Amino acid sequence: MNEFDLRKFEDEAQEQWTHAFESNPSSLEKFYLTVAYPYPSGAMHVGHGRTYIVPDVVARFWRMRGKQVLYPMAFHVTGAPVIGISKRIANNDPKTIHLYRDLYKVPQNVLDEFTDPLTIVRHFASEYQRVMTACGMSIDWRRRFTTVDPTYSKFIEWQWKHLYDAGHVIKGAHPVRYCTVDDNPVGDHDLLEGDKAEVIRFTLVMFRFGDAFIPTATLRPETIYGVTNLWANPNVTYVRALVDGRVWIISQEAAEKIALQDHTVEIQEEIAGKNLIDKTVSHPLCGTVPILPADFVDTDMASGLVMSVPAHAPFDYIALRDLQQAGKYTRIKPIPLIKVEGYGEIPAQEAVEKAGITHQMDSRMDALTQEIYSAEFSKGKVFDRYGGKPVRVARDDVAALMIEKYDSKIMYEFDTRPVICRCGNKVKVKILHDQWFLKYSDPTWKKQVSDQILDMSLVPPEVRLEFDRTVDWLKDWACTRRVGLGTRFPWDTTQLIEPLSDSTIYMAYYTIAHKIREIDAKLLTPEVFNYIFLGKESPDLPEKKKLDAMRKEFLYWYPYDYRFSAKDLISNHLTFQLFHHVTIFPKDKLPRGMVVFGMGLLNGAKMSSSKGNVFLLEDAVNDFGADTVRMFLMGSAEPWQDFDWRNELVISTKKQIERFYNTVSEIKDAKGEPHDIDRWLISRLQSHIERTTTALTNFQTRQALQEAYFGIETDLKWYRRRLPENSDGSRELHTLGSVWVRLLAPFIPFTGEYLWKQLAGEGLVSFASWPVADKKLVNTRIELAEELLTRTVEDIESIMKLIQITPKSITISIAPAWKYEIFLAIARAQDKNTVIREIMKDEMMRKRGKAATDAAKQCTTLIHRLPPYVIEPLTRESIDEMNIFEEAKGFLEKEFGVPFHVTSAESSEHSKSATALPFKPAIIIE
Ligand SMILES: [Zn+2]
Questions:
Q1: What pLDDT band is residue 908 in, cutting at 50, 70 and 90?
Q2: Ligand 1 centre and the CA of 179: distance in Å?
Q3: Partners of 177 in beta bridges
Q4: What is the pLDDT of residue 407?
Q5: Predicted pLDDT of residue 813
Q6: Pairing of β 68-70 and β 30-35
Q7: Helices H, strands E: what count in the chain?
Q8: What is the 482 CA–ligand 1 centroid distance (Å)?
């Protein structure tokens, strides 16, 4: 027998696979799947492994099912991160050097060249291709491209012309996340922390303080009428700053932020926070109020000073109460101004007291604040003396009044912090002028996308809600950047199209990627792409023959069938690409489906390259073998669930492959005549085929492996137990081996190819036909008989364990026919509650009295306990238990080494016989 050697299998298969997965239009039905292309700025870890192996398993499955499958790959090199990396490497930044040299194992001579950003992405792009190939991914590499290829840029220009003509590209002033170190807007991918933070628009309420203003930021300007004081932090230093020619007192951080939001700011001097305490400020809408000390005031939040409305803000209420309990400021009383159903006069006080909150740090404070905020906004009304309007109206009215008459300004700030750029700098909100946006806020555009989502297959189905929410919530998107790699923005060539905006319809580009590079990029006018993708004729198209070939490719492959990506891309990429598709392509070329992945964990913790918590995919392949890595990643969780990589579990996966390999090697030459148990084995095999096929059709890789690996392995164990003595099994085992290898080939293709050759299979297993279940081979009666036997053997084993005696004989006592009647009546009944009453209407049953009602109860319990795959066939097939056990007597005596007797419970004297139920005979051990 050949030794189990995954490395050998890999080498042999790789040789045969060169060019094997290059896929061209054919007469077969197509299946086109794509994954979000990687940004190759570092080495692949096992989390990336799953992202690309799931689609590979799916691709291999459909290929074996006779479809023409296309699985392409490219590299996304657009954007700024790699520029930052190259700068840090040039500056000898120790953290970056450590990451690249020690974790990603980049050789020193290559690392020396990483001062050029393009070298970094080129290096890792070829590393990605090498490692993906080592993992056995059946990718058509002819179609590989990068997003800085000149032909790709021409394609992007064409795409953007369509977006522009449709009115989706607009210019304006807008608050955006901004890094002042990079001097560039910050996208989701550029963030170390805070990707959930949203930009919020605050009103600055301007309190008079001598010759100066003290601004406080609020989302609830209408509460000005209830202000009792301001809060300032006595432990920090504020600044006096000339803002647009007027003096403001704000935090240092606020001065820097305000300067990014259309104000001129000139800092004059510092003021200690403690010098503000107990001074007074005034505002025309609330009069004169004092400034009180508060440690909780964060100078990095908005202006760094806060107005206090203790009647309606729980935090303010508690802070004031704390001071008053220390005997200070006792004359200040909360001033209510809003009436809201469900609350008394002072909502904040009432809510805090009801919840029994005693201090500011109570974790329930945020929820309580939110609760009052929502209640007042939705149902609250300001008091008549303040206008008597609903809060949601009064809020805008008061804000407008303050801006018009009382010097208020707008300030943009994040709702949660910190927000940290990849460079380590704190991100701020900047108002960008002449900024270009994709107008995702456009309701008509949103509607087109929502309609498209309705027509799509989404896996798992629960992500539909998240897509709907994203479409609903999406705002205009700043789509250009000043710094980075990528395609120049056609209407302002000092700008580049940012990464999430140049990666939305490239799935169409894959269909022509290997052919378009034969044409000079200069010739690739929008008319050329209009012809390839939209079939629009125009005069003087260059290289018409080549264009026709590309048009043919596009028409054959498009639309894509499924797109695979991680769930954190729903809120951007996966939704953006739908917006772009609906604008550019006709209905019959719009995306058909998406599969959304869960996250990867390493020993229970989130994988993160920047935190060093990763296991490199290449190391995994070297340590465990590519098939082991694949089978572990596919078998440990369904694709949409989170998976956890643990080396000790991966080792047991390798042992499973070895067992499979050994078994198939043993059975491949089996030649004997079939026994009864062979009919069972082959019958069972049909349902494993059926269920594996269904699972893979639904992308359930874990479920498929359960059936295809463990289901068949368990059957084989039983089969061997049931074989007559001196038999090694029959020629049916060869059939089973051939099916088994094919069912597992998408998961462990290297071992699959090797064994396929051993089995003398034709061609490559990668292209062998997927097994089809043959209903004619299914024998329910035999399956039920073996099921009964298995369960009875297990019962005997557990009884023997329990009673700890050496038995002299075992008697199987079979339930009487009338119990079968009851059992079947209950199993078949729609209404399990009334069926017992129905049964007892029968005169014969009534005569049996309590015995019958007891049996009915026991049958009900048993039916609940037996799996549907036993109950369902039992309701249509009758089995002869007596006969089954008589025939298995030899087997049972061999298993347990004692004489076996089979009796009917009715003829048995033994009291235990009364417990016999259908499919659960009484077992008497003596
Ligand atoms: Zn930065």
A1: confident
A2: 5
A3: 429
A4: 95
A5: 95
A6: parallel
A7: 34, 32
A8: 13
Mean pLDDT, to the nearest integer, of 795-816? 91
CA of 806 to the centre of ligand 1 (A): 77
Q: 424 C-alpha to center of ligand 1: Å?
A: 6
Ligand 1 centre distance from Cα of residue 50 (Å):
30
Instruction: Give 181 Cα–ligand 1 centroid separation in angstroms.
Output: 5
Q: In this structure, how many other beta carbons lie within 10 angstroms of the beta carbon of residue 354?
A: 11
Percent of the chain with pLDDT strictly greater than 90: 81
Cα(487) to centroid(ligand 1), Å: 21
Please spell the DSSP secondary structure of 716-732, one letter per residue: HHHHHHHSPTT---BTH
Global pTM value: 0.82
Question: Please, which pLDDT band fits residue 1 given cuts at 50, 70 and 90?
Answer: low
Q: Please give the structure tokens belonging to residue 633.
A: 């990643």
- Of the candidates 201, 203, 216, the one whose C-alpha atom is nearest the C-alpha of residue 401 is 203
For residue 765, what pLDDT is reported? 98
Q: How far is the CA of 483 from the centre of ligand 1 (A)?
A: 11
> How are beta strands 605-606 and 184-185 bridged, if at all?
unpaired
Distance 243 CA to ligand 1 centre (A): 26
Neighbour count for residue 476 (Cβ, 10 Å): 18
Q: State the distance from the centre of ligand 1 to the C-alpha of 93, rounded, in angstroms.
A: 15
> How many Å lie between the centroid of ligand 1 and the Cα of residue 304?
23
Q: Report CA(176)–ligand 1 centroid distance (Å).
A: 14
The CA 266 to ligand 1 mean position distance, Å, reads 24
Give 194 Cα–ligand 1 centroid separation in angstroms: 13
Pairing of strands 600-602, 643-645: parallel
**pLDDT single digits (tens) 410-453:** 999 999 889 999 888 999 999 988 889 999 999 999 999 999 99
**910 falls in which pLDDT band (50, 70, 90)?**
confident
Angle at 230 between CA 339 and CA 242, to 5 degrees: 125
What rounded mean pLDDT belongs to the chain? 94
Which residue reads 């090697």 in tokens? 665
pLDDT of residue 393: 92
- Name residues whose C-beta falls within 8 Å of residue 98's C-beta, 6 or more positions apart in sequence: none
**606-609: Cβ within 8 A, 24+ apart:** 607/45, 607/46, 607/47, 607/645, 609/42, 609/45, 609/99, 609/103
Positive or negative: CA dihedral 326, 330, 332, 333: positive
Q: How far is the CA of 254 from the centre of ligand 1 (A)?
A: 19
End-to-end CA distance of the chain: give it in Å, rounded: 46
The 3 state secondary structure assigned to 25-75 is CCCCCEEEEEECCCCCCCCCEHHHHHHHHHHHHHHHHHHHCCCEEECCCCE
Contact 529, 158 (CB under 8 A): yes
Distance 40 CA to ligand 1 centre (A): 19
Q: Could you read off the pLDDT of 532-568 as tens digits, one per residue?
A: 999 999 999 999 999 999 999 999 999 999 999 999 8
One-character DSSP codes across 799-847: HHHHH----S-EEEEEPPHHHHHHHHHHHH-S-TTTHHHHHHTSHHHHH
Q: Residue 326: CA atoms inside 13 Å, Cβ hemisphere, count?
A: 7
Helix (H) or strand (E) run with residue 170 in it: strand 169-179
Distance between Cα 260 and ligand 1 center (Å): 15
Q: If you measure from the C-alpha of residue 911 to the centroid of ligand 1, how many angstroms do you get, rounded to a whole number?
A: 82
| Distant-in-sequence, close-in-space partners of 207: CB < 8 Å, separation ≥ 6 | 213, 214, 215, 216, 230, 281, 282, 283, 289, 307
Ligand 1 centroid–CA 817 distance in Å is 80
Closest by CA position to 64, among listed 697, 911, 810 = 697
The edge-to-edge listing of strands for the beta sheet with 488-489 is 480-481, 492-497, 488-489
List, for residues 171-198, the tens digit of each pLDDT value. Answer: 998 898 999 998 888 877 778 888 788 8
pLDDT at 80 over 90: no
- Distance (Å) from CA 608 to ligand 1 centroid: 19
